[in-house]
Amino acid sequence: MENRYANHPDDSKRYTTSELRNHYLVEENFKDDEIKLTYSHVDRIIFGGVKPVNQELELLAGKEMGVDYFLERREMGIINIGGTAIITIDGVEYELNKRDGLYIGKGNKSLKFKSVNSEEPAKLYINSVPAHKEYKTVKIDINQAQPIKCGEAANLNQRTIYQYVHPNVCESCQLLMGMTILEPGSAWNTMPCHTHERRMEVYFYFDMQENTRVIHLMGEANETRHLLVKNEDAIISPSWSIHSGVGTSNYTFVWGMCGENQTFTDMDNVAMDILR
Question: How far apart are the C-alpha atoms of 159 and 136, rounded to whole Å?
């Protein structure tokens, strides 16, 4: 598991492009027959990919966590962006098709992942955050996720936000997780932008062609920075940073949040004339 450390916003103003990428961008989140995770010290979120191809993979707790099993003091959300998966939790199997989700509560000890078809392997994107209470495991098909239509064609930002791990769908301690799908011809997400001091966020971009790129905007609103993001890259967004982007084509991204509350609309909107 890779570690990423937290820092002060003033530090980021001085970073070169390479330094920004080293601190905030996580590439290659999926590798065949591997569990590839990143541990961010921003609210101690763990995120990354599980891609079982030819074998079943088991998620174990490493030294970074200091516990006997992965979900001893954590909860987890999963969204499958690949082929059909079988996830076995303490002996109980859950089948996830493409774009299905799963919430797994604190206290579950055994987590195993396999693909139904090795020719079309599952690609399971994970967010895991600290938890103080046990909630039941819930499978969330995409047709059970709560959709919210946003944007206008004139502003190049028509999109649907699907809420998976959200109080309107299932109970969790502090994790919020969902997916945003941009319509063809739309390129912008989350603009006008916002921050939320009470929660951090991770964006995971996918459904992008080889040469498609997203220009992800980050930083304080009055002094922004940007990162060029390719397919299946993730971005760590501290609570003080905006998180927005525009692509060379439409794309999809998974968002995951943790922090002080679960109020999805609790955000500090940034007026366009403040952006620099």
Answer: 30
CA atoms of 254 and 161, how far apart (whole Å): 10
Helix (H) or strand (E) holding 80: strand 74-80
What is the side-by-side order of every strand in the sheet holding 188-189?
188-189, 244-247, 214-220, 223-229
Cα separation, 71 vs 29, whole angstroms:
21
Between CA 239 and CA 259 the distance in angstroms is 9
Give the strand pairing for 2-4 and 146-150: unpaired
Residues 177-228: tens digit of each pLDDT: 999 999 999 999 999 999 999 999 999 999 999 999 999 999 999 999 999 9
- Across-strand partners of 26? 234
More confident residue, 63 or 216: 216
Cα 214 from chain centroid (whole Å)? 16
Q: Which domains does the chain have, with CATH numbers?
A: 2-274 (2.60.120.10)
Please list the residues that pair with 112 across neighbouring strands: 58, 88
